[in-house]
Amino acid sequence: MTWHDGSCHCQRVRFRIFLETPILRQCDCSICRRRGTLIVRVEENELEILTPLDRLSRYRWGSRTAVDYFCPDCGILPFRRPSELTVEERRVGKEPFEGWAVNARCIDGLDLEKLPVMKIAGSALNV
Predict the structure, then answer these.
(1) What is the distance between the alpha carbons of residues 100 and 40, in angstroms, rounded to a whole number?
(2) What are φ and ψ of residue 9, in 5° steps?
(3) CA-to-CA distance for 98 and 67, rounded, in angstroms?
(4) Which of 40, 56, 59, 48 is nearest to 8 (CA)?
(5) Alpha-carbon distances of 77 from 1, 6, 81, 102, rounded to whole Å
(6) What CA–CA distances, in Å, run from 1 to 90, 105, 110?
(7) Cα–Cα distance, 123 to 107 (Å, whole number)
(8) CB 3.0–4.6 Å: which of 40, 57, 121, 123 could bond 22 by disulfide?
(9) pLDDT tens across 27-77, in order?
(10) DSSP structure string for the chain
(11) Long-range contact list for 54-60, CB < 8 A, 24+ apart?
């Protein structure tokens, strides 16, 4: 496992992320589709946020259980707290995730072309 540096475009928001074998997640929900982000999920202790969260802008939508963090200057989303599971997801036994969803496009030195991509049907979720 290796630590990687990451940031927003203007580098006001900086972080370090610990990755082993990342799998990118490409969601087709309305907001992810418009953003064009590729997400990599990490556990709580695998993300070190170097910029205080109170210096970032926040956005909540849909179920309002997810928190998207943005740079207030360049507008880039480097990471987010994923939403809570829907009733349907809990019903079928999906396990909750308590970590971070990091925009892989903000991670320095990550060769996105060489990493597997998992398609997520976020548009099918009832939020």
Answers:
(1) 8
(2) -65, -45
(3) 12
(4) 56
(5) 24, 11, 11, 9
(6) 31, 19, 13
(7) 26
(8) 40
(9) 998 888 999 999 999 999 999 999 999 999 999 877 777 799 999 999 999
(10) -EEEEEE-SSSSSEEEEEESS--EEEE-SHHHHHHT--EEEE-GGGEEE-S-GGGSEEE--TTS--EEEE-TTT----EEEPPPPPHHHHHTTPPP--SEEEEGGGBTT--GGGS-EEEE-GGGS--
(11) 55/12, 55/13, 56/13
Q: Provide the whole-model pTM.
A: 0.86
**Cβ(11)–Cβ(4) below 8 Å:** no
Q: And the tokens for 118?
A: 């998992």
**Res 90 pLDDT > 90:** no
Q: What is the pLDDT of residues 94-121, one digit of tens each?
A: 887 889 999 999 999 999 999 999 998 8
Answer whether 42's CB lies under 8 Å from 103's CB: no
CA angle 96, 97, 98 (to 5 degrees): 120
Backbone dihedral region for residue 75 (phi beyond 0: left; psi -120 to 50: alpha; all else: beta): left
Rounded distance, CA 29 to CA 15, Å? Answer: 26
